[in-house]
Amino acid sequence: MQRSRVIAGVAVLAAVAGAALWWIQPDPEAGTPGTAVHGAPPAAERQAAALGAAALDGGAPGSAVGARRSAADADLSDPLLVQGLRDTLEALLMEAGDVSDPAALKQRLAALVGRHFPAALAARALALAERYVDYRVALGQLKSPAAAQDLTDPRALRDAMQARDKVRLQFFDGPEYDALFAREAALDRYTLARLEIARNTGLSPEQRAQALQAADSELPPERRAERAASTEHMAAAAQTAAFNAQNASDLTRHQARSAQYGEAAAHALAQLDRDEQHWQQRLDQYSQARAQQGDQSAAAQQLRQQLFSSEEQQRLDAALALRRLGAAPAGS
Asked: Over the stretch 183-197, which tens digit does the pLDDT of each residue have?
């Protein structure tokens, strides 16, 4: 039996109805697909970093920074049941490695728990981790939902979420459930509500707008801020792509960005434009040298070292491959 069947138990259920569905579902208002920050291309990640840095310099309330602070200021009345508990348990399981059965896995966890939790919490944390193993095994045994075939079927997704939550409540009490899953569950319910609104063809534009507003009001303020931050950088990346296509001037870019994101973010995004231009110029120079002197020539290799940092060299071949395919490297 593979570890994926013992603890990962990922199943289609966990992938489809498990983690913040709004990362993968289209936004009915914007008409553009959402993208997970962790799956964003490098250029979009830079857009997110620029906007986040601007928020640190005095961004508007409800920014991503505010959302992270809210998470950090979670209720600490129980030192074990804090924000990030689930991530810590997953890290513990990851360190345990591949194990053939749950009993053997739990033995490994007992030896490793002290690396992830303070000594005063180790006994409770181990008991919780053992139940988390049992939960993941049970989750993996659930029948794959119909949502596996249609990620846009609200009814199938709702059934999958209910089945998942029923399993969770078999292994964790109320405070434990909240610490492990409440944040994710709130986002799942919100996304499902938006999906149902988007699929409801009987709604007029006005009714759809009202329904979306009502769904937004049900999401806790911290989660609304996180959702806005997660899509804001993609909007900035799309705006930059449009500027590039139009060969927009620096002044045009700055005026539009400062009006939409604020002065600090506009300056940060302008710096990204300059960085991207410099990256493209270096790619041009290196590509020309390789074409003239050969990919593996000493001169080409020397130029590679001169033009690109060690980190950039790790992305260089992929960027050149994208060029050959006719795709924009976008700072990859």
From this structure: 888 888 888 888 888
Contacts of 166 (CB under 8 A, 6+ apart): none
According to the model, what pLDDT value does residue 103 have?
Answer: 93
Tokens 């603890």 belong to 7
Neighbours of 87 (CB within 10 A): 10
pTM: 0.50
CA-to-CA distance for 35 and 50, rounded, in angstroms?
17
Helix (H) or strand (E) holding 150, with range, is none
Cβ neighbors of 184 (< 8 A, separation 6 or more) are 18, 19, 20
The DSSP 8-state label assigned to residue 297 in this structure reads -
Report how far Cα 132 is from the mean position of its chain's Cα atoms.
23
CA 277/CA 12 separation, integer angstroms:
42
Contact 98, 138 (CB under 8 A): no
Cα–Cα distance for residue pair 130/123, rounded to 1 Å: 11
Q: 205 falls in which pLDDT band (50, 70, 90)?
A: confident
Asked if residues 8 and 136 have their Cβ atoms less than 8 Å apart, the reply is: yes
Neighbours of 330 (CB within 10 A): 19
How far apart CA 240 and CA 222 sit, in angstroms, is: 28
Long-range contacts of 174-180 (CB under 8 A, 24+ apart): 175/78, 175/81, 176/81, 176/128, 178/81, 179/78, 179/80, 179/81, 179/82, 179/83, 179/85, 179/86, 180/85, 180/86, 180/89, 180/132
How far is it, in rounded angstroms, from Cα 18 to Cα 162?
Answer: 11
Summarised one tens digit per residue, pLDDT across range 144-165 is: 654 445 556 788 888 888 889 9
Distance between CA atoms of 4 and 101, rounded to whole angstroms? Answer: 11
> DSSP code of 38?
G
Q: What is the pLDDT of residues 86-132, one digit of tens each?
A: 999 999 999 998 777 899 999 999 999 999 999 999 999 999 999 99
9, 137 contact by CB (below 8 A) = yes
